[in-house]
Structure formats: structure tokens, C-alpha cells
Design brief:
The chain has 185 residues and is α/β, with parallel strands linked by helices. It has one domain (2-175): 3-Layer(aba) Sandwich (Rossmann fold), CATH 3.40.50. It contains seven helices and six strands; from the N terminus they run ββαβααβαβααβα. It has helices at 24-35, 48-55, 62-78, 92-102, 115-124, 135-141, 160-175; strands at 2-4, 13-17, 39-41, 83-86, 107-112, 151-155. Helix 1 (24-35) crosses helix 7. It is globular, with a radius of gyration of 15 Å.
Length: 185
């Protein structure tokens, strides 16, 4: 794990990002529950045309993504206090667009994994519109966050509980969030 550009900014808006199969929703929901924050599921902001396109195995273009990113960013900005949002945010331009639309600092939690791990997870999920065939397109589009972006990278190969624990530790260090200890004692 790396804590990239974790500076004095203390955002309470965390975008859980990564390609399909990285666990954005599962990890985001677990973090939201542990931190007592609302969760915004980025997929629910896609217009029907985007969902149809992806369901047909056609990758989205930047023009398809801009209104979607604006809608997510606006929802983040309109959510008072802390918030967790799940969004692929594959390119630097997309992360910049989200931040501009939110009008507040965003911390990106980058869920990173090997193609093999991601493909296995996509193959095992049920009822999602994103077909496994689009994984390679997303990996080709992915621009991992740079050192000047407020980002935490977490490897998604371990079990979900370990990924969540690692993310919580890193978030506490990088963002100044108080992480509640809910372990049984």
C-alpha cells in the first residue's frame, strides 16, 4: 500500500476507485458502515444508454462518461459531512472532473489487483451489467493515480476483510479520520 500525496488536506469525501471486479461496492459499503458514512454507488448514476452499451460489451467513451462523472461529483458535493462513493475513476481527467464537480477535496482509495484476480471476481458475480469482456478495455484505460494525487492504494488480492482493515488503517493515517474500533473485546 502507498499513501500518495497525503498532505494536510483532510477530505471526508472518499472515492473508492478501480476497474471492474476490484470490489468498489463491497469495500465501499464496508467502509461506509464502519465509518458511519453514507454510500453513493456510482453505477446507479449511469444513464440507461450507458448501461445498455456496457451490457452489450461496448466500452464507454469519454463523452459517455462526462455526464455520469458530473452527476456523481455533484452528489458528493451535495452530501453534507463525510461520504463514500464508488466510481471507477479510471483516468486522471475523470478524477479531476469528479473533484471539480464535487467542489471539495476528494481522497481516492485505489483498489488495485492483478488481471487474474479481477477476472475471477467478475466471473463470480451475479446480476451485474458489466460483462467480463470489458475488463481488458478498463485495464487499458486505467491511468493509476500519480504521486501528486491524494490517493491511497490497496491491493485487493487478500480476502475482503483484510482489504477493508488495510484501507481503514490507511484512511486513518492519510485523512485524519477517526476510525471506530468495532472488534469484539
Amino acid at each position: 500500500m502507498t499513501e500518495d500525496a497525503a498532505d494536510g488536506n483532510k477530505p471526508t469525501a472518499i472515492v473508492v476507485m478501480g476497474v471492474a471486479g476490484s470490489g468498489k461496492t463491497v469495500i465501499g459499503e464496508a467502509l461506509a458502515e464502519r465509518l458511519g458514512l453514507p454510500m453513493l454507488e456510482g453505477d446507479s448514476f449511469h444513464p440507461e444508454a450507458n448501461v445498455r452499451k456496457m451490457s452489450s460489451g461496448v466500452p464507454l467513451t469519454d463523452d459517455d462518461r462526462w455526464p455520469w462523472l458530473d452527476a456523481i461529483g455533484k452528489a458528493i458535493g451535495e452530501t453534507p459531512g463525510g461520504v463514500i462513493a464508488a466510481c471507477s475513476a479510471l483516468k486522471r481527467a475523470y478524477r479531476d472532473r469528479l473533484t471539480a464537480a464535487a467542489g471539495r477535496p476528494l481522497l481516492f482509495l485505489f483498489l488495485d489487483g492483478s488481471r487474474e484476480v479481477l477476472a475471477s471476481r467478475i466471473g463470480n458475480r451475479k446480476g451485474h451489467f458489466m460483462p467480463p469482456g470489458l475488463l481488458d478495455s478498463q485495464l487499458a484505460t486505467l491511468e493509476p493515480p500519480g504521486p501528486d494525487e491524494l490517493t491511497i492504494r490497496v491491493d485487493v488480492a487478500p480476502p475482503v476483510a483484510e482489504v477493508v482493515a488495510e484501507a481503514l488503517t490507511a484512511l486513518g493515517s492519510a485523512s485524519g479520520l477517526t476510525i471506530p474500533d468495532t472488534r469484539a473485546g
